[in-house]
Amino acid sequence: MECTVSWSGPQSTPHQGSAMSFTALTGSGHTLVMDGAPDAAKPENGGANLAPRPMETVLAGTGGCTAYDVVLILKRGRHDVRGCTVKLTSERAEIDPKVFTKIHMHFVVTGLNVPAVAVERAIAMSHDKYCSATIMLGKTAEITTSFEVLQAE
């Protein structure tokens, strides 16, 4: 796996973009733009809120990784899963490096007669065995989960 991240360079006006904008070109050929938070005290060091922050993309990637696992595990178990949403909330350390210290993931799985025990098992399997992002972040963060199962119509 590879990825090339490039700084867009200093921008002289807000119309040209952000002083802290980065573009990532992934090995699979996709582009992802990231930006820093605005810095009122030193605008040249801040972003313009034009794209997600890099750490937000880490959190989003983690949610995507575990949701992928949960759906795949449920489908392999022949459950009629129709949707899966994961809401992630997090806390970070107050001093550098500001690693994630707590992450909570709330899963909402929609399907036809999907047993709660199967969802619980799929989440556990993802977090204990398959989701490399969750397992990696678990080295610095306390990761907790909750879930609900909704009946599809």
- The structure class reads alpha+beta
Q: What is the distance, rounded to the nearest whole angstrom, between the alpha carbons of the first and last residues?
A: 40 Å
CATH superfamily membership of the largest domain: K homology (KH) domain
Instruction: Identify the CATH class of the largest domain.
Output: Alpha Beta
Counting DSSP E segments of at least 2 residues, the number of strands comes to: 6
The number of domains is 2
Q: What's the alpha carbon Rg, rounded to whole Å?
A: 19 Å
Spatial arrangement of strands, main beta sheet: 1-2-3
Which tags fit this structure?
3 helices; alpha+beta; 3-stranded mixed β-sheet; 6 strands; 3-stranded antiparallel β-sheet; elongated; single chain
Can you describe this structure?
It contains three helices and six strands; from the N terminus they run E-E-E-H-E-E-H-H-E. The chain is α+β, with helices and mostly antiparallel strands and 153 residues long. The strands form two sheets. A three-stranded antiparallel sheet has the order 1-2-3, with no helix packed on it. The protein has a three-stranded mixed sheet with strand order 4-5-6, with helices on one face. A hairpin with a 4-residue loop joins strand 2 (21-26) and strand 3. Helix 1 packs across helix 2 (116-130). The longest helix has 23 residues, at 54-76. The termini are far apart. The mean pLDDT is 93.
Summarize the SSE layout with pairings.
Blueprint: E1 3-7, E2 21-26, E3 31-35, H1 54-76, E4 80-92, E5 100-112, H2 116-130, H3 132-137, E6 142-151
Helix pairs in contact: 1-2
